[in-house]
Give the backbone structure.
Amino acid sequence: MTQIFGAKSTTDEVLDGIDLSGSRILVTGVSAGLGVETARVLAAHGAQVTGTARDLDKARRALAAADADGIDLVEMDLASLASIRAAADTLNAKGETFDLIVANAGVMATPFGHTADGFETQFGTNHLGHFLFVNRITGLIADGGRLVNVSSAGHRYSDVDLDDPNFERTPYDRWQAYGRSKTANILFAVEFDRRYQGRGVRATAIHPGGIMTELSRHMADGELEALIEELNATRPEGEAFELKTVPQGAATSVWAGVVAPAEEVGGRYCEDCHVAGFTDGDELRDGVRTYALDPDNAKALWTKSEELVGERFPA
């Protein structure tokens, strides 16, 4: 009988009894938080893990502190197309395939700013960075492999805006910008899944849950508590929002990438170790907005993303 996991399941529980020896897995953002835990647990179960990080020294310290041994590291700054291309070139030159890519790295609620190439920071880093990187190494994904994009319930703050992705005409709101980037993570998975499932490669997006990590470093004192209070005001009595631990937060990534049937999660959005249903209500945590899984929206985002990064990636 299939084990049922939920919001409180940890990475170790999800992978209990699973041997990943012989698997090769790539995780972006292994210098803190969910990336470190994802890399740790996959390596602990026998996978050969490659991690990317902007600051390799920081990544080495974080992985050592987590007893995450044997992680190969590649330098990559998702806010720089040149850095992304260099990292992809390094991996392509080695030619080693991956059974799973976890696009985990990201930023949240940043002040208004731009990447090295002039894109709004959150959209440029969270979406365009991964869009370029994954597409440049798609040939390294083994047949039957998977892509897991770490999105967020924050996608419910906003659909993508393909007419003004860099807030050149729209007043900047950091949560709206975060929402756009997280919706883009989901739509990227939807279109990637459509394009590559013919060779058994499936893509999904996940919400890890609310976790205290470096991701919240741009939030002011008391802002997180106020956000939780706002969330609970929209939830039924007895279902108060709770922050997750890091191992609980990373559980859905490894569940979707390793444990869940590929046909169940392909082209979908997952949370708390299950496939989420649609919801367009006001409650922020549970469910996925219909615009985030819309196939036409996904195709339009793909076309716009190719235009922005200056490369085409045919199916």
